[in-house]
Design a protein that fits this description.
Layout lengths: L15 E2 L3 E7 L6 E8 L4 E8 L4 H11 L10 E7 L2 E6 L5 E2 L8 H19 L13 E3 L5 E3 L4 H6 L6 H21 L15 E2 L2 E2 L11 H11 L9 H8 L9 H7 L102 H11 L9
Antiparallel strand pairs: 1-2, 2-3, 3-4, 4-6, 5-6, 7-8, 8-9, 10-11
Helix pairs in contact: 2-4, 2-6, 4-5
């Protein structure tokens, strides 16, 4: 049952929340317990979104929104304010830009991998501050150009459902499952998650969806296996965001943010192979539109991805630059020549002169090797937004 079926928005078009945020247009809600409005900030002259909250978990949602407001990442929609005013409970955010994921699915496998990786990386940033999403759904992911996507509802959306995890480990496991469910949706256009969505569910029993390759073409084996393991009844899928990022491997446009690298902990930094130039019919950006259907893994090198692993991480593939070339001893200084008048030096017959010892210069490493290792030694790069 839709909680909004008999409910009425506490404010309407033309009202101004706190006398400042003028409600302009009611938007399609992303949550059954919230009315969503586009509003105009009369002081800063900018657009904002206002969520007017209902239900028994309003206070929990506001507390969660205030915690999430401290997180700064361009892929997480910024929360401006949250609280109660004049009997109205609200969350105030920046507008969700771009196009909702629900309007673009299914995507091709390269786009699906990139979308899932960016979502996992963004939530990994929030996880550093013990903030979790908890209720990922396709309606909350908007595809954009810069940044490539934006996620709404961080923290407060799940709290408004009344779904409070018992601890941070459970909360992260829920996010890892939610990210994998988004991957399934991107590949197939079906939503296998536990929370309701406007996207149709996949074939199969609840909690045991069929694997993506049975309902979509061009699904790589590693993504097919990841969805089957994570969303199946066995519950053997990734339980942390680091596991998800590890299982996805390289994706188009991936950059290792230092904060994500800190989350990965003991996992070694790996210099990823460069992605090939886009060929004919392959978009250079993962967000240029829906998939053509049944395409091969667009933008990905053949055989670059193995099946998901749950074992220990592989050893480092690139040593530090300083350990590549052997250390050369410093050249010996030339002995000082005494300042003696030429006339005082006895003239002796010329003797054979030994050839001068010349130390060979160290051979430089190949340019590509130096470049790759320099990148490894300089640490992970900051995520580049697309």
């Amino acid at each position: 049952m839709d909680p909004q079926q008999d409910a009425v928005s506490p404010l309407t078009s033309g009202d101004a929340l706190m006398g400042r945020y003028l409600l302009v247009e009611e938007l399609t809600s992303t949550h059954p317990w919230a009315f969503r409005w586009l509003a105009q900030d009369k002081i800063l002259r900018r657009q904002v979104e206002v969520y007017l909250l209902l239900g028994p978990h309003v206070d929990d949602a506001i507390d969660a929104a205030r915690s999430a407001a401290l997180i700064r990442d361009p892929r997480l929609v910024r929360i401006i304010d949250a609280g109660h005013y004049g009997g109205v409970s609200f969350v105030l955010t920046e507008p969700l830009p771009g196009t909702p994921m629900t309007d673009l699915i299914p995507l091709d496998s390269g786009q699906s991998r990139a979308l899932t990786g960016e979502v996992a990386s963004a939530l990994a940033i929030a996880r550093q501050s013990d903030v979790h999403h908890g209720s990922l759904r396709p309606e909350l992911v908007y595809l954009h150009s810069d940044p490539p996507l934006v996620i709404g509802g961080l923290g407060w959306d799940a709290a408004l459902w009344g779904e409070a995890p018992s601890d941070h480990a459970e909360a992260e496991a829920r996010d890892a499952e939610g990210v994998t469910a988004l991957l399934y949706t991107a590949l197939t256009g079906r939503w296998p998650g536990r929370l309701p969505s406007t996207v149709a569910p996949p074939p199969g029993e609840p909690g045991a969806p069929v694997k993506p390759s049975l309902i979509a073409g061009g699904v790589p084996g590693d993504l097919d296996a990841l969805c089957e393991i994570a969303l199946g009844p066995g519950g053997a899928g990734p339980t942390t965001l680091a596991d998800v990022i590890d299982d996805l491997g390289p994706w188009l446009g991936r950059r290792d943010d230092p904060r994500v690298a800190a989350l990965l902990g003991s996992r070694p930094s790996v210099v990823l192979p460069p992605m090939p130039d886009s060929g004919p019919g392959v978009s250079p950006s993962p967000w240029d539109g829906p998939a053509s259907g049944g395409a091969a893994d667009a933008g990905e090198p053949a055989g670059a991805h193995a099946a998901p692993r749950r074992g220990p991480a592989a050893p480092p593939v690139a040593p530090v630059l300083a350990s590549v070339a052997p250390a050369m001893p410093a050249p010996l200084p030339e002995p000082p020549v005494p300042d003696v008048p030429a006339a005082a030096v006895p003239q002796a017959p010329a003797a054979p002169v030994s050839p001068e010892l010349v130390l060979p210069a160290p051979s430089p490493a190949p340019a590509s090797r130096v470049s790759a290792l320099s990148e490894a030694s300089s640490g992970p790069e900051v995520l580049t937004r697309h």
